[in-house]
């Protein structure tokens, strides 16, 4: 990183908008956090569908909504297209999907763990999502009705902000060269 503050790309794939809104909230909290302000951090949120290039940034938060246990294609394509750049930067992953209380499904998306290992991510956090029937396609509506999935907006903005603040603190520590302990770092 150079003398200016770290530039952070926050990019996520979304089908119905709710994960884009989580990415925007993460970017805002990163920039506005005490740790972020102390190092002049600036975070930009961009849809993964716009294929942002991570190599213009010092660190990356990459995420996706989860459908049928998997990340969306736009996020997976970013991983494939920019594996080396993502591996070379501090990277955090986020997934958004589980609905209801307690969150369902409880399982992690099956590909995010693989991506985290492959890219050397510093963490992967799963956040609750939003299921708004008015935004779904006919097929999706039929599926969630058949599964009796709970409908509503279960996004936890306080948890999103707290996670972003922890990421900003970790980035500030990396910048200062201090030893870094991450709450949701992957083993190995
Ligand atoms: C057809 C369908 C399948 C889904 N499958 C999963 C799933 O396997 N795991 C999960 O955690 N959430 C699942 N969800 C919930 C979505 O991930 C959740 O609604 C999310 O917030 C949508 O994000 P988006 O608005 O950014 O597209 C599913 C939703 C739909 C409509």
UniProtKB/TrEMBL annotation:
InterPro entries in the cross-refs: Flavodoxin_dom, Flavoprotein-like_sf
Domain of life: Bacteria
Cited Pfam families: Flavodoxin_5
Leader sequence segment: none
Domain Flavodoxin: residue ranges: 10-149
Protein name, entry field: Menaquinone-dependent protoporphyrinogen oxidase
Gene source species: Geodermatophilus obscurus
């Amino acid at each position: 990183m150079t003398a200016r503050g770290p530039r952070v790309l926050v990019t996520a794939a979304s089908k119905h908008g709710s994960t884009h809104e989580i990415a925007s909230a993460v970017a805002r909290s990163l920039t506005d956090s005490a740790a972020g302000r102390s190092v002049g951090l600036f975070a930009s949120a961009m849809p993964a569908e716009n294929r942002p290039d991570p190599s213009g940034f010092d660190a990356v938060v990459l995420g996706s909504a989860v459908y049928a246990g998997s990340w969306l294609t736009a996020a997976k394509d970013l991983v494939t297209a920019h594996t080396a750049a993502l591996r070379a930067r501090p990277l955090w992953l986020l997934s958004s999907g589980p609905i209801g209380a307690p969150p369902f499904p409880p399982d992690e998306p099956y590909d995010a763990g693989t991506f985290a290992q492959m890219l050397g991510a510093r963490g992967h956090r799963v956040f609750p999502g939003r299921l708004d029937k008015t935004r779904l396609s006919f097929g999706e509506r039929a599926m969630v009705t058949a599964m009796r999935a709970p409908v509503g907006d279960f996004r936890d903005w306080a948890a999103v902000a707290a996670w972003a603040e922890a990421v900003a603190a970790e980035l500030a520590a990396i910048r200062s060269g201090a030893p870094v302990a991450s709450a949701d770092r992957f083993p190995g």
